[in-house]
Amino acid sequence: MSVKWEGIMPAVTTKFNDDDTLDFAMFETNLKAQLDAGVHGIVLGGTLGEASTLTESEKRSLTKSTVDMVKGKVPVMITLAEQSTKAAVKAANMAEEDGASGLMMLPPMRYKSTDRETLEFFNSVAINTSLPIMVYNNPVDYKIEITHKMFDELLKHDNIEAVKESTRNTMNITRIKNRFGDRLKIMTGVDTIAFESMVLGADGWVAGLVCAFPEETVAMYELIKAGQIKEALDIHRWFMPLFELDIVPELVQNIKLAEVYTGLGTENVRAPRLPLIGDERKFAIKTIEESLKTRPALPDYKNL
Predict the structure, then answer these.
(1) % the chain with pLDDT above 90
(2) Is 136 an active-site residue?
(3) Which residues does the annotation say bind pyruvate (predicted)?
(4) Which of 146, 153, 188 is nearest to 168 (CA)?
(5) CA angle at residue 16 from 244 to 257, to 5 degrees?
(6) For residue range 29-87, what is the model confidence (pLDDT) as tens digits?
(7) CA distance linking residue 101 with residue 70, whole number of Å
């Protein structure tokens, strides 16, 4: 399946049973809610997916199961977050074998590569897979920036098609559009600035709180796309306290707790992560409960 880099693509959480095995039953419950809400793609194995704790076998099972559950309704992307070039190429090949539609690819993990090394890392994967690639540019968290000059080089590969823009600098939306036009699609990757990013021209949103609130997230996107900015802004302002749960180190625990409240998940995380306790838990619960009390009535956003 080809990938249209637009719309809402949930960075879905990985569900675990109490015995720390993959919980495919709850995962399917959440996935169905995403599809029913009208999402445009699924992103597996990112930060929210706790990919750093998953085994190779689990990642492959997750990919194959998701492809089977989705049944071609939307593309399924798997995240590449590897420490070596060799491992990244292998992961890309396995993703292709397992039926993934595309890749969300991070720079080398742990080692802070130079620009030349980073380019070679992406180049090596691009020439060894036919899958379309979305480059995840998040220098805030991963300390490596893929600059626009570097994209000049990377876009020589036809299958490098999009960027998950997570620099937190919304000026980059316009800079990318001015420099690359539609050659480089832009998926905003930070919930708190998704509204303004899409108004400025981002093609879509790799979202986090969508895991617990899929309808509100898709409604925001569709309203912006239809030019109903005021209506979208109202949802954005309601959403902001929840969005801020996604920009802290405990984002996985926060969003999984929100999923519990909306019936779309459990709190189970994989160690070294632990469920929230104390003031952090109280704050998250207060934020979620207050937001649920004022949950907005949504328009018929699927028929705008």
Answers:
(1) 98
(2) yes
(3) 206
(4) 188
(5) 30
(6) 999 999 999 999 999 999 999 999 999 999 999 999 999 999 999 999 999 999 999 99
(7) 12
Cα 277 to Cα 282: distance, rounded to the nearest angstrom? 8
In a domain, 209, yes or no: yes
Is residue 210 annotated as involved in ligand binding? no
**261 is an active site residue:** no
Report the distance separating Cα 243 and Cα 222, nearest Å: 18
Is 1 among the domain residues? no
Q: Which of 15, 59, 164, 185 is catalytic?
A: 164
* Residue 46 Cα to chain centre, angstroms: 7
Active-site entry in 136, 142, 221, 301: 136
Number of domains in the chain: 1
Residue 269: DSSP 8-state: -
Residues near 30 by beta carbon (within 8 Å), at least 6 away in sequence:
12, 13, 15, 211, 259, 264, 265
Q: Peptide bond before 108: cis, by omega within 30 degrees of 0?
A: no
Give residue 7's identity as a one-letter amino acid code: G
Q: Which residues have a Cβ under 8 Å from the Cβ of 66 and sit 6 or more positions away?
A: 27, 31, 42, 44, 76
Q: Are 183 and 155 in contact (CB under 8 A)?
A: yes
Range of the domain at 132: 7-303
CATH code of the domain containing 279? 3.20.20.70
Q: What is the pTM of this model?
A: 0.96
- Domain presence at residue 2: no
In a domain, 20, yes or no: yes
In the chain, % helix, strand, coil (3-state, to 5) comes to 50, 10, 35
pLDDT of residue 280: 97
Give me 40's structure tokens: 């445009």
What is the Cα–Cα distance from 227 to 210, expressed in whole angstroms?
Answer: 21
Cα distances (Å, whole numbers) of residue 214 to 17, 87, 210:
23, 33, 4
